[in-house]
Amino acid sequence: MDKVGQMQQTIERLTSPGRGILAADESYPTITKRLADHNIESTEETRRFYRSLLANTPGIGEYVSGIIFFEETLGQKNDDGVRIPQACEQQDIVPGIKVDKGLTDLPGSPGDKITQGLDNLGDRLDGYLEQGALFTKWRNVYAISADTPSRQAIEANAEVLARYAAIVQSRGMVPIVEPEVLMDGSHSLERCAEVTEAAQSALFAALRRHQVILEAVILKPNMVLPGKDVQPRPSAEVCAQATLRVLRRTVPAAVPSINFLSGGQTCEEATANLNAMNQASVSKPWVLSFSYSRALQNPVQAAWAGDNANKAAAEQAFLKRARLNSLARQGQYRTELETTD
Predict the structure, then answer these.
(1) Is the pLDDT assigned to residue 1 strictly greater than 90?
(2) From the CA atom positions of the chain, what is the Rg in Å?
């Protein structure tokens, strides 16, 4: 199969009905912090057991089409000695990999960040392919303040995301592009919409410049919401209306799927907001699904609590959260389902 055919096959698997993507790609510092929130020590073995649990939960392939992993996980095995990427494939889950190398200050633009990792990316991708990964993720961030993000930051980050996507597609892999406007702060919903529209517009202009095949790209954006310090929170319908307005202005219909990040929302908020978007009556030429991290994993980590005797309870917590988001992806979620098994 040629590279375009390989990417198309991967897109079809990732966008299959009723399913979404789990982001389990936390770096060492991030996973250490997340586990510490549940009094779990982060060691190579606890990370192996936990991420193996995610990939091997019986029946999870009904709701999850892909899992984004951290580099460490691609080489790890489950308790049966099967490498975790291959365990994913056994449930028709596509293994993916985070390939950026984190954030650094953007020179000349105080308060703005740019993402590192383009050096030797092609060589790294060749290794990830050999380990079974078929899609990738790269995250940029845009913090909202009185002075940020600057136009320089928006354009520079768009250029980096486009260069990354072009390199990934040259290997026959599908790139997820993630331009995340952060929820930190007290900015208004309107200000979030303004920055999100600017970031996404610049991104798609850059993707075209670099001749990236839009039909083989997945967008992983933030939802349009006010800063997390703002109370009361808007309804799911208000979030959906604002988010879809921006997407309809910026995202070409050629893009097959938009898989939202949960970005500071509670599990229930992220699910309800996705559901409202799929229920909205406006035209939506793309699949609208999820690529959640904390909004899928928090209940799992709480149920596991670092005690492997709680494996079955953790699997059930994962299945429930994934099923509710699968329903939201179809516009069929109801809040009363949160209190039923």
Answers:
(1) no
(2) 19
Tokens for 132? 């079974």
Closest C-alpha among 152, 139, 60, 134 to residue 97? 134
Question: pLDDT tens across 161-210, in order?
Answer: 999 999 999 999 999 999 999 999 999 999 999 999 999 999 999 999 99
At 76, the amino acid letter reads Q
Q: How far apart are CA 296 and CA 21, in angstroms?
A: 10
Beta bridge partners of 218: 176, 257
CATH topology of domain 3-339: TIM Barrel (3.20.20)
Give domain limits for the chain: 3-339
Among all residues, which ones are annotated catalytic?
178, 220
Distance CA 292, CA 326 (A): 12
Residue type, 263: G
Nearest to 143 by CA among 108, 103, 116, 111: 111
Q: Which phi-psi region, left, alpha or beta, contains residue 63 (left: φ > 0; alpha: ψ -120 to 50)?
A: alpha
